[in-house]
Fold each of these.
Amino acid sequence: MILAFDTSCDDTSVSCFLDKTTYSNVISSQNEIHKKYGGIMPEVAARKHIENIAYLTKEAMLRMNASLKDIDDIAVTVGPGLLPSLLVGVSFAKGLAYANKVPISPVNHIEGHIFAPFIEYDICFPFVALVISGGHTHIFLVKSVGGYVLLGKTLDDAVGEAFDKVARLLDAGYPGGPVIDRLSKTGNPDRYNIPKGMESKNTLNFSFSGTKTFVKNLVNNASYLSISDKADIAASFQKAAVDILWKRAYEACLQTGIKRLAVSGGVSANSRLREEFAKNAEECGIELFMPKKELTTDNALMIAFAASLKHSPTFNYSSIEANPRLRIY
Ligand code: KG4
Ligand code: ZN
């Protein structure tokens, strides 16, 4: 049984994992706390992780009817993420591992996202992985566990960051992604022709700065925006963002000749994205893998699952360190 922690950003999550159908996964969201700042305050996030982590660990084990002597391995996100937040999970995991004489499996948060869809499906290598979150917009060719080739990435904002900024410009609430998703449901996605950046057909890189600046100018030049105007802007932006993401993901499948696409990270919770990707993938003969909605955003279950695939637990506790800029490519 693997006990796993993810404290990479603002949510504290702990999972107790036996196999793909037998696990617990508890997540404590900090959205209400960071709402008043309009973004994540790293020091505040870390303090909340400290308050929550022991309680959530007990809860995750209780739900599996497990005690510490049942734990064979402790998995923890070591990066990338916010350093103060990562340090809480890493220190807690190391302390628990040392005291209970169990090994630790360090996991890269992005690796967690890459494999999250396969908690539900069987893995078949190679596949193309599109990771879209608040910190990442990356396309990888995944040849094996540990075999990642970077095919493309954002040259400026991550797509989740762009959602968050557009929500802030519209004064629509926090967190931006779910707010834009909700607001878009009543909006007209065809009202504004929002630029999609980097029109070059062959590129697998992304740019969201032009898209975001267009929305900024739209908002700044308007003397008044009604709720319905805001909904139209949200829906038009969301449509542009989803179109950009699909175009690059499809291009990656064409360029690699691989017709298996895994999409994960917080932005893959987006309802338009899920509908459009499902429709487009079917039309293009691409096998699409997306996590269940609750496993798109940060969670410790995906960290436990990645650790179970990696088989690299170690008793060399001093080698385990938080690294906010950890890479997998
Ligand atoms: O994977 P995640 O929980 O954390 C990171 O690793 O960054 O992703 C968080 C991002 C945020 O930018 C949030 O606004 C976005 O995912 N997000 C969404 C939706 N739900 C969360 N973006 C668009 N539509 C959503 N429904
Ligand atoms: Zn994440």
Amino acid sequence: MQHTDIDTLVKKWIVDAADRPANPRVQQIVVRLLGDLCKTIDDLDVTPNEFWSGLAYLSAAGASSELGLLAAGMGLEHFLDLRADEAEAQAGLAGATPRTIEGPLYVAGAPESVGYARLDDGTESERAEVLLMQGTVFDADGQPLPGAQVEVWHANLLGNYSFFDHTQSPFNLRRTIVADQDGRYQFRSILPVGYGCPPDGTTQQLLDLLGRHGQRPAHIHFFISAPGHRKLTTQINIDGDSYLWDDFAFATREGLVPPITRVDDAAQLAALQLQQPYASIAFDFHLSRDSAALPSAAVERQRAAA
Ligand code: MBD
Ligand code: FE
């Protein structure tokens, strides 16, 4: 078939009826997607068996709640980041901390505190390395932003996230820290390890067929928000991870791999009542001012809440 014939055909499938008001944006997107899909079927001679197997795959991915994971693994979530970067650059915004994907594992409603929080519930203390991370939230002029919200979440030593992993305590490794009067935040936690897609899940099933792994390097997620500023969604990576630049979700970016300092000074350890050296990460967040030229940087998507 000619592509133009397919376009004509697909347009005929959208039948406007005066008594059934349509959503023109949905019509526009669906017609385009259907046309592109039909062209793929035709160009690649996709067999009926292949078509129905693809449909069954999407059903299974949805039924197991892995579509968010799939969007990350196929690079689509990173692609949305690249487009947001482009829009901000065109609007003249520059200098903020790089964004990177949210991923599918945020949970709203984490406990909130001012200035400092301990994220871990202590259950992995015997095997974990303690992490202290601290820094300042700055505005576009380099002024600190007292009251900025630092939402932070990360995996445990098995690469699992509380809530999704029912064996962890509620909100383990998840907190909201309100920056203090100097715009500073600090937290104590444990150094996380990387995440691997569920080995028997639908995402890994497709990755296998693509000859890809489903691993993420160790990382810590953040939402940084302050009134009048663009919400920042980002992550930092734990330096030294073997998957650092080989993330199945393509989320590692320059500027998001802070150095880790090992602290073994006896006085500093004693002050924290620690018997072992700990890891320290200093990382400041820089926000952009809100821009009337751009849609909000706060993305709406289905999220868990507890
Ligand atoms: C994660 O921890 C994550 O951040 C992403 C993007 C996908 C799967 C697990
Ligand atoms: Fe993650």
